[in-house]
Design goal:
This protein is mostly beta strands and about 100 residues long. It has a domain of about 70 residues: N-terminal domain of TfIIb (Single Sheet). A four-stranded antiparallel β-sheet has the order 1-2-3-4, with no helix packed on it.
Length: about 100
Amino acid sequence: MYDLLYSSKDYEAEIDYIESFFSAKNINITRFSEPKASKIKNVVDVNFSIFYKRKDEEKYSFLSELHSMRHFNIEEISQISSECGFELIKCEEMISRDEPNESH
């Protein structure tokens, strides 16, 4: 899913779309995420195109959503934390728990 990508590399990457699948007891869902990052605004606009089908039906339904999300790099998070009386103790990638870096 798009929101798990490390933001500092997203500005340089040329990602057309990310496809994800979900299947539950009664429904199949395919989601296409198309990110467009703005380094100047520290924002990424993600257009979600979602196709879903109930398993007992033949046709797919479609919906789309646009999510504008603000990027915060580690330096910004550290500064904001400090200004609010907090201390940044650790940063890690969500799934792997590796230390974040621009090469991942």
